Amino acid sequence: MTDQPDEVSHVADYPIGASITEDELFRDPYRQYAKLHADEPVSWIADLNMWYVVKYNHVTEILMDPDRFTTAFDRSTVRDTFGDQMLSVEGSLHHKYRKTMRGSFRPKAVRDNAVAGIRANANELINAFSGQSEVELRTHFASILPVLTMLSTFGLPRSDFDKLRVWYNSFEASLANFKWDEAIRRRGHEAVAAFHTHMQSAIERATAGEVPDSLLASLVSQMPDTRLSDEEIRLNALIVFFGGISTVEALILNSVWMIGTHPQVHGRLGEDPSLLPRIIDEVARWRSPVQSAIRHVTRDFEFHGHMFREGEVVCCMLGAANRDPAIFPDADKVNIDRPREQKHLAFAQGPHMCLGMHLALTEARIAVECLYERLPGLTIKMDKSPEPVGYEFHQPEALYIEWKPSV
Ligand code: HEM
Predict the structure, then answer these.
(1) pLDDT at 264 over 90
(2) Among 354, 357, 362, 392, which residue has the most ligand 1 atoms within 8 Å of its CB, making it the best to mutate?
(3) Is any ligand 1 atom within 6 A of the Cβ of residue 253?
(4) Which helix (H) or strand (E) holds 301?
(5) What are the backbone dihedrals phi and psi of residue 363, each rounded to the nearest 5 degrees, phi first?
(6) Three-state SS at 356
(7) Does position 52 have pLDDT exceeding 60, yes or no?
(8) Which end of the chain has the smaller Cβ count within 10 Å, N or C?
(9) How many CA atoms are closer than 13 Å to the CA of 367, on its beta-carbon side?
(10) Which domains does the chain have, with CATH numbers?
(11) Nearest-atom index, ligand 1, CA of 293
């Protein structure tokens, strides 16, 4: 599992990739992407031991081609951590898993089942600090709301919050464990085993009709020819649960950060609140919460003049593709009037395109709406809130906001 593919050195052919460090990518990914866009749009990042692809058209081509670029590969940290679920299988099995779940994440289902709960949770979290005049938004709001949403999506009680958060932290470390550290891997596997045990009792409660109107209730009540086995439900629950947490946290924080650092956008939002979905869409392009999608090369072949070898990892840089100057004029600038025909790739593309996109956009919209409604004069404390960082998840490490306290 941890074996590297036969060593083929690309270092000499990709001088920019050889010079970029993981730390630089973390601290200022967009600066590194700009260098790659200009001179090495397909590059071997030696420090990460993987290909980086930054052009919009190349990224789209890869994501649409599971035959040459697969998620179903042994040396995938997603598969090693979570096993065979939606994001580690292709073809008919992938279709079967996705089909059983997609109904619960369509726009109408999100409107009918999730909106009221998200708004209630957001307001409850704001109640806890609205009497003050400042708060650190990540800790006290953005990191909590998505977990509450996932708990209610699955029909799990709020008392599960702490347990799930701890498991989640182990999952996250294990999924980013590209150096295959054994201790991180073991902790990830232990958390996954605990999640399975916990989810199995939830499946049994759902089967007994005790958690109506939840994703689990819908999964266990499907007709025998489409119903997934309990193990398949547990495996796919892992990826849905994982997919809906840090991602949404980052979209909420990046949205508040963008509005707070762009007075014109803030002004227009004040005049016309219906602009919010458009603003959040531009945030998803400009500061993409998920910066990359990983694929594995299934056989040796040449990709636009670059020799890809079987087993190598290709990182489709969604955040970089969303700043491709050939596709998005003035790509580094925020422009909420951008024509929307050219879709950004923040939720990827192709068969694995994000299942929870509508839920994510709805959640971020409600979160931002509630914050600005409830905290008049909301601004960012810039001295304590550095810009977003990260080349996997991308968000501010801390975001302090202040407002005029109500008298
Ligand atoms: C702003 C929030 C979100 C962003 C930016 C985001 C982004 C993405 C991306 C880029 C992928 C493709 C990964 C790949 O191809 O390797 C993906 C897949 C996925 N996402 Fe999201 N996501 C978000 C929220 C959510 C939410 C709320 C859920 C859960 C309800 C979710 C569930 C999933 C699942 C299950 C997949 C795998 C789909 C498949 O393999 O067919 N995501 N997401």
Answers:
(1) yes
(2) 354
(3) no
(4) strand 301-303
(5) -65, -45
(6) coil
(7) yes
(8) C
(9) 28
(10) 11-402 (1.10.630.10)
(11) 16
Q: pTM of the entire structure?
A: 0.95
Of 62-66, 162-166, 232-236, 352-356, the least confident: 162-166
Q: Using a 6 Å cutoff on CB, does residue 360 contact ligand 1?
A: yes
> How far apart are alpha carbons 402 and 136 in whole angstroms?
9
**Radius of gyration, CA atoms only, the chain:** 21
Q: For ligand 1, what atom is nearest to the CA of residue 97?
A: 41
- d(CA 268, CA 223) in angstroms, rounded, equals 49
CA-78 nearest atom, ligand 1 = 16
- What pLDDT, in 10s, does the model give residues 309-364? 999 999 999 999 999 999 999 999 999 999 877 799 999 999 999 999 999 999 99
What is each CA distance from 121 to 106, 118, 126, 181, 247, in whole angstroms? 21, 5, 9, 37, 18
Residue among 110, 219, 355 whose CB has most ligand 1 atoms within 8 A, to mutate: 355
Length of the chain in residues, anyone? 407
Ligand 1 center from residue 239 Cα (angstroms)? 9
Residue carrying structure tokens 């994501």: 63
Report which protein residue has its CA nearest ligand 1's atom 13.
Answer: 293
pLDDT at 8: 63
* CB atoms near residue 363 (< 10 Å): 27
Instruction: Please state, as a whole number, how many other Cβ atoms lie within 10 Å of the Cβ of residue 169.
Output: 14
pLDDT one-digit tens code per residue, 9-50: 788 899 999 999 999 999 999 999 999 999 999 999 999 999
Residue 3 has pLDDT above 50, yes or no: no
Residue with tokens 């630089």: 24
Whole-angstrom distance, CA of residue 336 vs CA of residue 340: 10
| Distance from the Cα of residue 89 to its chain's centroid | 18
Distance, in Å, from the CA atom of 406 to the CA atom of 382, rounded to the nearest integer, reads 22
